[in-house]
Amino acid sequence: MNALNLVFQFADNFAFVVLAAVGLAVIFGMMGVINLGHGEFIMIGAYGTTLSANAGAPLPVAMAVGVLVTAVMGFVLERTIIHRLYDRLFDSMVATWALGLILTQGMRILFGNSIPQVSTPLGNIAYGEFSYSTYRVLLLPVALLVLGGLYVVFTRTEFGIRARATIQDPDTARALGVDTDRMYTATFVIGSALAGLTGALYAPTLTVVPGMGSSFLVEAFVAVVVGGPSVLLGTTLSGGLLGTIDAVFTNLFGTFYGQIAMLLTAIVVIRVLSNGLTGLVESVRNRVEGE
Amino acid sequence: MGLGDTFDRLRRPFEGPNTLGNSRAFWVGFLVVLAGLVGYPIGFGSYAASSAALYLLYAILALSLTVIWGYTGILSFGQVVFFGVAGYSFALISMNLESALATTLALPVAVGLATLAALVLGYFMFYGEVRDVYVTILTLVVALVLNTFMAQTAGSEWTVGSVALGGFNGIPAIPSLTFGVGEAAVTLDGSAFYWFTLAALVASYLGLRALVNGRFGYTMVATREDEDRTEMLGYDVRRVKLLVFALGGALAGLSGVLYATWGNYISPSVFGITFASIPVVWVAVGGRRSLLGAIVATVVIEWFRQQLSATGSQYALIIVGVVLLAAILFVPEGVVPRLDAALTDVRDRFATNADTPEGTPE
């Protein structure tokens, strides 16, 4: 019984870590920009969803609106601000931080400290004395679907190949006729849309408030740090590791200790593996191929 | 003549390529401004002085980030961690022991604990070869986790000695800064606290000027410019970064103790995401490579925020965000260095005009 509880908890945490981190990871892994306003991008996606659902749109449509709004915002911000800061690592962090401040406070001024919430759909799965929200259980396959979709986009499509070429060697890519500016913009928009999707998916399960972004930050940043530079593999692996640790510690001691355990994991992983989990995978692969 | 020479000899240790203001004129201006600041409580009374002391103690926090970020190239969002650790430590020590001597000793002990926290965190990061953005993210995560932790300490099981941590509400009734033993103790509040804070700020500023213009300061700047090359030249980059980080922790800790005694209060919001970002705003706007810039920007921005929140405006944070964004986009080196460059420009133009005899063909 307790084992099953742990499995559900793990599924929930894995989905949360992956979804919280994926937008951040795409932008960081592909462009080297740490979007410190990531939490606020998620918040915008959640607001888009909740507000349109309150206006009468069915939930799936409302979610699409949330994603769309965040993607458009990402596009505008990239074209006006972010693209000036690509070779200035710290400046881009500070600038995206400033954007986060403006977005949080802006939403507070526009919509107040709280808006009517959307209730969680689809009811519960009950098992013995435990009961789980069906909707939250479904987030696990959704998270896997997102990872799979990204894998296909970045490895199997023309766009993905051009985008990765731009990341690896912008000069050569440009010489071969890739519009690198457009690739950067597109990648940033994809990252923003993913953040929006996270917000849309969690809007019915969390309290949608202007400061909600910060509740995703710890998981998102720790996952990206632990994962290392290779986006998809890194996010999947760190989602698995952190999801397990969080599930175990939250189950044993409570939510706060789950967070502490994740932080300690991040410090230990970085201390031992400076390139994160994907760095470890890389070096194992190199050793095996070398023999 | 002799006086001028003495003056020049005195200012030499504080001057060099790593700071603005290397002229006799600057130091005369500095002394004039300092005299004005010292006289401020006399002119405006102890209430005004005590409000102004907040800006001065924040400026020490800003200096702690300048030395780490501007001079050594480590962007830390975690200065508030050491600020808060020292503030909470001071509260717990002084309120548990409840004697003038304990309160006196609580200041150095709290600053020591903040330094220790910085040493431990710095050791794991720098000796673990954690670099660049990862340092920034880790320091931010530490602050956020501490915020979560302190906020959930409302229950009665969270007491240290006789003092409850108080969760979201924080710890009230922290004693004011006190020096001495028993009856002979002096408690600093109002104007006296202002003067003490001003002295601490000036000492930090001058000390850091001497530091960054000395041998160690050159190593710091070399580390910022090119870590690998500095290491190749035989410097222990990790040790340099660790020492600077510890120094930053100590300064932030000092600022934190002053903060806790200023309002006799500390709460988990010092670890919160908004407060964690504010030092970065001060330093980025003022000029990250300028100690003076950080101080000026801190005082101006905080004064401005105070005015805005006093009028009940919700736009304070938006304006802070916009100012920060504008600074990053249009004045990346910071406002104060930009002003300094403009000033030098004007002076040079005047000088050339005066030097060029009239009617001389160019």
Automatic annotation (TrEMBL), chain A:
It is a multi-pass membrane protein. It comes from the Archaea. GO terms for biological process: amino acid transport. CDD domains: TM_PBP1_LivH_like. The chain crosses the membrane at residues 14-37, 57-77, 89-115, 135-154, 183-204, 216-237, 249-273. The keyword Transmembrane helix applies. Its main location: membrane. It is found in: Cell membrane. GO terms for molecular function: transmembrane transporter activity. It holds the Pfam family BPD_transp_2. Signal peptide: none annotated. Keywords: Amino-acid transport, Cell membrane, Membrane, Transmembrane, Transmembrane helix, Transport. Belongs to the binding-protein-dependent transport system permease family. LivHM subfamily. PANTHER family: ABC TRANSPORTER PERMEASE PROTEIN (PTHR11795:SF447), BRANCHED-CHAIN AMINO ACID TRANSPORT SYSTEM PERMEASE PROTEIN LIVH (PTHR11795). This is Branched-chain amino acid ABC transporter permease.
Automatic annotation (TrEMBL), chain B:
The keyword Membrane applies. This is Branched-chain amino acid ABC transporter permease. InterPro entries: ABC_transp_permease, LivM-like. One of its GO terms (cellular component) is plasma membrane. Its main location: membrane. Pfam families: BPD_transp_2. The chain crosses the membrane at residues 25-45, 52-71, 77-93, 105-127, 133-151, 193-212, 242-259, 265-284, 314-331. It is a multi-pass membrane protein. GO terms for molecular function: branched-chain amino acid transmembrane transporter activity. It is found in: Cell membrane. Keywords: Cell membrane, Membrane, Transmembrane, Transmembrane helix.
